Amino acid sequence: MLLFSCKDKGDNLIEMTYDPDSVPTMITTSVSQLISDSGITRYKLEADLWLVFDKAKEPYSFFPDGLYLERFTPDFEIEATVKADTAWYYNAKDMWKLKQNVHVENMEGEQFDSEELFWDQKNERVFSETYIEIKSGATELKGYGFESNQTMTDYRIFRPHDGKLPFTEAVSDSVRQDPEEPDDAESLIFDDETKINED
What we know:
Mean pLDDT: 82
Structural class: mainly beta
Helix content: under 10%
CATH architecture: Sandwich
């Protein structure tokens, strides 16, 4: 980038460097925007600050002050909500990177909390290698490594750590460690040796 003065012969010609990977081409504040996909409104995005780097080697958007996102069904019902303290969106990959206090909730009311999640919209996949907690009613699942469809309704934890599963009257007697234990025990705690079968 070159800046010119009004003097003759370019006496005060100043050369300045411009890094498109670190200098945004657009800055928007107090954002609330509906986003369409194939002519259908699919998302609502809210952010205090939106920085666009569309001249970068890998064009991206950056949300340094947090992000709130709603995903809609074709009938305009909220399919999932997403919150994060920091977020990046990579245009070519059609992928979100969400960092710090990431909180997702699906249509069933299940809640997902992690410090990092990736949302691959091109392949309709959400995943993470970090610690995650999932709450669904009285059930709590915890562990490391996570994968889900993008509606967050079909998911698994790769390395379960611990958690809590509610008892029901249908629980097999073989699960109980004490045959005299009353039937109204509230929950079962499991550790990292316990296998979770989501099927």
